[in-house]
Amino acid sequence: MGLISLAAAKTLASSAAFLFITVLLMAAAKRTATCIALFSAQCAIITAQILATAYLHHSGEGFLVAILVFAVKVVIIPYALLRVVKGLKTAGEVETSTTPVQSVYITAALIPLAFVVVRPYVRALAVDGQLLAAAVALVLSGAFLMVSRKKALMQVIGLVVLENGIFVAAITTTSGMPLVIEIGIFFDLLIGVLLMGVFVFRIRDTFDHVDVSKLRQLRG
Amino acid sequence: MAHILFNSLLVILLALPAVTLLASPFKALRHLSPALLMIGLVAGAVAAARSLCHPCLIASDLSSITPLPFALALDRLSAYFLLLICVVGAPVALFSFSYVERHYTGRRRDWLWALLPLFLLSMVVVVTASTAFAFLFGWELMTLFSAGLILIDGDDSQRRQKLFTYLLMMHAGAAAVVGAFFMFAPHAAGLDFASIRVAAGLMPAGVRTAVFLLAFIGFGTKAGIVPLHVWLPKAHPIAPSPVSALMSGVMLKTAIYGFVRFGFDFLGTGPAWWGYLVLAAGALSGVLGVLYALAEHDIKRLLAYSSVENIGVIYLGLGAALVFTANHAPGWAALALMGALLHSLNHALFKSLLFLGAGALADATHTLDIEELGGLFNRMRTTGTLLLIACCSIAGLPLFNGFVGEWLTFQSFLGGATLAASAPAIVLPLMAGVLALIGGLAAACFVNLYGVAFLGRPRSVEAGDAVEVPLAMRAGMALLAAACVVIGIAPAIILRPLSAIVQDLIPGASLPEGALSIARFVPWLAAMVIAIMLGVALVRRVTRLTATWACGSPALNSRMQYTSTAFTSPIRKVFAQAYRPDRTLSVEPAEQPYFPASISYHSIRTVHFEQALYRPAVNTIVAAANRLRKLQTGNIQVYLLYMFLALVLLLLFMRLA
Amino acid sequence: MTLWIPLLVPLLGAFAVLACRHARVAVRVALGVGAIEVAALANAVWAVHSAGVLQSGHYLRADGLTAFFLINIGLIFSLVLAYSVGYLRHIPHGRFSSARWFFALIFLLLFTMLGVYLSANLGMMWIAVETTTLVSALLVGFYNTEGAVEAGWKYLILCTVGIAFALFGTITLYLAAIRSGLPADTALDWTSLMNAAPQMSGARELIKLAFVFVAVGYGTKIGFVPMHSWLPDAHAEAPSPISAMLSAVLLNCALYALLRFDAITSRAIGSGFSHTLLLALGTLSVVVAAFLMVVQRDLKRLLAYSSIEHMGIVAIGIGLGGPLGLYGALLHTFNHSLAKALLFFTAGHIRSKFGTLRMDRIRGMARSLPWTSVALVIGSLAVVGMPPFGLFVSEFVILTAAFTQAHYLLAIVLLAAISVVFGAMLQHFQGMLCGEPQSMGARGKSLFADVAVMTTCAACLLLLGVRIPAVFTGFLHGAMAVLQ
Amino acid sequence: MTYALDVLQLLLLLAAAPLVRGVVSCLKARLQNRHGASVWRPYSELRKLFSKEDLVPPTASPVFRLAPVVLFAATVAAAAFVPALHGSALLGATGDFILLAYLLALGRFFLILGATDGGSPFGGMGASREALVSTLAEAPLLLGLTAVAIAAHTATIAGMVRWTLAQQFFHLSAVHALAFAALALVAIAETGRVPVDNPATHLELTMIHEAMVLEYSGPSLAWIEWAGAIKLSAMMALLIALFMPWGMPVSFSVAGLVVAPVVFALKMAAVAAGLALLESGMAKLRMYLVPDFLGMACALSILAVVFTAMMR
What we know:
The complex is a heterotetramer of chains A (220), B (657), C (484) and D (312).
Chain A lengths: L1 H27 L3 H26 L2 H29 L11 H26 L3 H20 L3 H23 L4 H29 L13
Helix pairs in contact in A: 1-2, 1-4, 1-5, 2-3, 2-6, 3-7, 4-5, 5-6, 6-7
Chain B lengths: L1 H22 L8 H22 L2 E6 L9 E4 L1 H28 L2 H23 L3 H21 L4 H26 L10 H10 L2 H19 L8 H4 L5 H26 L5 H23 L4 H28 L3 H36 L10 H4 L1 H14 L6 H15 L6 H33 L6 H4 L6 H19 L2 H14 L11 H22 L4 E3 L18 H11 L1 H4 L2 E7 L9 E7 L3 H24 L4 H21 L1
Antiparallel strand pairs in B: 1-2, 4-5
Helix pairs in contact in B: 1-2, 1-4, 2-3, 3-4, 3-10, 3-13, 3-19, 4-5, 4-10, 5-6, 6-8, 8-10, 10-12, 10-13, 11-12, 11-17, 12-13, 12-16, 12-17, 13-15, 13-16, 13-19, 13-20, 15-17, 15-19, 16-17, 16-19
Chain D lengths: L1 H30 L9 H11 L2 E3 L5 H18 L17 H21 L3 H32 L4 H10 L7 H18 L17 H4 L5 H26 L10 H28 L8 H22 L1
């Protein structure tokens, strides 16, 4: 058993680093499809982290939640998003208002900012600082993605990354919410993403483009 | 007894709209609602008169029903103003008996008979309220109903623009009044007048000054003090004549009631500069009001500006009273307050008479521009005599009621010299000069109005074949004229209750000895003047009607007479500073000025208050709004940025707090 | 049991309506389900009123505060249902935009909102608020026009981001509860949190952090400035009954969630921090909305900004706290929902008669739409806070509270903003109401249902302004007792 | 007994009024090396006018005939305030200066109405100018009288005279000189004497009072002329009473009754001479210089009030 607990401890320690990598790659990504892939990788890392915490805390629920996360976030949502990308048939690349280099630099700057923000809380809550910083970094980069990307779908991805950040923060600090709430949250997230997909198709039907920054009819 | 009559007035006024709308289809019941209105107002007048002698405190208390305490009471001051409302309301209702029949038909007529009682009811609620909620309830409704009544006359864009200014300024004024009432909230147990009085004593001086200033601005807007008067010449002329009579005669007095209630009943004594502020406002309004009235041709606009002037005279009296209370001279303060209150009643009487007269003229000649009238005395004798009485009263001539109010104010200014402090001893007597100037200008203004409108030759066809108005209209006007003359000749009947009121309001006030001497003296003077007039009239004389010598020209025609512009041009030249009209004289062709093909002269009196004070205020608001509107860019990314910035700012605020 | 029925009836109703083929049958089924739903709500409210607190199972709970808001939702829902029956003539056909879907989505929205009110658990409440966003996004985008799609998208994205922050706030509160010793499974229960609140004063920083995130999160749904940007677009582009439902009930729903949080935080760490935050957000909303109303050109956008302003006033009421502040705020939510519903109904009529909502293009409404003009006048007088109507009473109470706590500057700013709003509303509406109508053909015939709906709204507003019934005051005090 | 004396005093004033005007015009003629009409000419003029017909324009209204009646009544009532032979007058005991001023305003009000009713341009012109002059004269008149009232601590005219009688001539402060000057200027404007208005001429450029009464003839003109004369003598008597009352008996005594009329007559003659000298010395002011003339009177009265209040 020692081996498994050793592996769990290792995953907990290293997941923060992996999360940072996905955040940076996503900032640099040019095509939506790569973003979706990176997102599903991110969710995989989070599943691993849940499994590790569940194992260390010996909570049966944890495993159930891990399975749920894996099903919803790693498989269903990316699959849905990819179908939307294929359905759009328009150019797949990511139109951004900031050049890729700039966005990478900004995201890179966000990570130390996350560490600074988190420091007082790590001391107060005696929690793994790295993971909490990763959570805040995810939230900040998700926000940055939504603000800087012009494509409607990229905004959805930014949103979901932000949700990931919050979810990671939840796991590291509270080691898991009551199961019913977790299920409810995932269910909501799933429907939310599906609905956003429907809206993206609607925007394309009505406006023949999915560039969110051109949606400026309603002003004043 | 007064209690029952007062409640019956309230019930009648409340029920009348329903009665009107129900009775509208039946021809026979056409005069039901006007008759009911008359009965209600007479009952109200009797109730007010009785409770002037012995006030009954809680007349009707609906606090158990209404969401917030709502009670009406008839202390002496409220009874006096209720008397004012009913004494003016009844003749106006009588006048409207036939005026409304001749001018409005069908739905408009019903709407007018439905809204008029509600308008009166809201004013009755304002003057008799004894809780803040009731007062403000009546205060806002009063503006709404008057706006409704104005809209009955038509809603083209020009009238709507004036109505918009009126409603906006009334609402801003009401906001100040709300502020004034609620300033008592931290110190008072509840917002009824009794606990407000108690709280006023405990409040620090700074809060008392804030309350006074808010009350001054709030009630000043409704009364029409000069910087805040811009709505008055816009709103009153566009209302139907009976309604503008009520608005000018009575609605302005509810503002005076409110200011007296705050200035004397709640706050009591305050620093002297309160008095000087009110005096300054009164003087400014008085002089500028009458000067603008002089420059007007439209009767209703002239009367509206003259209301500004009379409110100025009332504020002079109130200002003197405040200065006296500040200098611990309650006797003289009581006299000054009496002068102001009496002038309010007098102004209500003759101003509503003048507006009704204007209504009668409009009814007979279909025009309100005095430049087109003339020679109406021979064609409308009763209206002519009644308006002669009204013009004499408003000019403040002895034997008429205008003089008595101004005489009391003059006496109080003389009393200023008896004060120890040197500042009031100089300022107050000088105010006598200002009041005299206002009186002189008012006399000139109304001799111009009467002379041009009623005397000489008719200047237009309509004026030529004008016909006397029906009996009900004349009867309504006659009642008001009778009241003017009776108060003018025998002021004792109104001075005794007034002295009781001011003794209530100003504690420890004993009137100076010679103060009410006018009550004994004027009847003798009247007797002597009338005796001499009879004596002179009885001297036998032979009169012969013959055309007067016209320096050889064939015959005098109406164009040779002095028009109102000509009559007032010397005065307007002397006081040119107050007008500063922008005149445009254009001569075509410009290169030969001495052989012009056509000359056109155009002079608009720029209303510089509006340009200097209100236009910039409105422009800044609209400019700020436009800048804010640019924030709503339409781009979702910018909206997201707003949210994240808000979150970051709040987190920083949390860190610091 | 009495709580499950009102919750499940709209869910089943939604599916039942979807199942019927013809629009006429769908309407009749919808009305039937609506009637049952209102009866169930009434029964639930009366049960709560007599029993104080109803708890069924682990997740459903209803107390005085819930009862008060259930009355609001019941009244407005029945009005909206009755109005939309007459409104169906204008629904253009396209995906999702048929009568069946319209009623189904309305029932789903009702189901989600009842979920928020009846949930005993803060987590469940968050989930319900999230689903209200999803369902109402579909309703906002119902017309499938360019504006509707854009508004729907912005509404969906902005509110989901906002709600995510609210989730983080809930989790932080959950963390604070666990840190101060609450067992994990009941750490999110509202009652257990309230009972344990005094011990949680230790985790002061965490609770303040939680409140900030919740304020921003649910603030987005309530429409506080600066998170309000979606509200004018959503309310302007949605069909009129839906805008009425959004403005009158959905904002109150989010406010209800914020009230639940404020109760816990003020009991745990004192109301100093949370109330100053609410006062700041409220005043900012009132001032910015007042100024923006001056330059609006579209009627429904004007009404949307008026909703932001009134939510600001309610926030100020809650921020002032104390019996007066709370009484004024709760009464204001109820009055405002009635007035705003009335105004959106009239907006629906104007759109159907004049084909546009551009206020500068509408002339002579008084002659061509007499009944609607009367309703518009009553509604605008009420919204502006004129005496005979309810909002004057609640604004009077809130102003008294402000002055009693010597917030002079705040009160003066509030009075000034109300005057600016009065000027803006008067300027826009006098142009619309008066003047000569262009050739608008026959006068709009108004359905009996619409007239009945509008008269009930106006009657309730007048009743609450002149005479608040004793029963209603009972509910109001019950709600206040919960929050004290 | 005092009532009888007051009535007698009033009748004396009314009767002597035309004589005063005759004396003034005779003195002016002598100063201009003219023989001039006899002093009693105004009486014969009045008798002539009373016997003539009263011509009334056809378009005129009853106000045209009412105006002279009200003017005469108001002026007589005003004259009843002014003490001549002894300290008090018929209405002077309780009536105060405000009533006096406003009674004169009542008379003027109806005279202006009568003028506009005539329907001729002269009437309108006279009325318009009279309105300007009387408006501007109102303030200094009242302020001047206020100054004296403040000094005498009473508003009644009898009280003021009694207070001045009690003072020594040399103790009277400069303030009284200011008040006297202001009231003198206002008296000239009110009664329409030379610098403001020329009573003798019918030249339309200059006449104010004459223009208003151009339409009147016969008894109506007689009453107006007489009222004008009463007003002149009343104003002169007022100035004398307020500023030079010495010679009036303080208490009631037979000797006083004999001396008082003689002293009063001498003082009136002196004032009449002063007026005649002023009128022949000055030319009539242009119409729009009259406001400066009255502005001077207003400044004087304001100073009087301020200094009286300071020196209390």
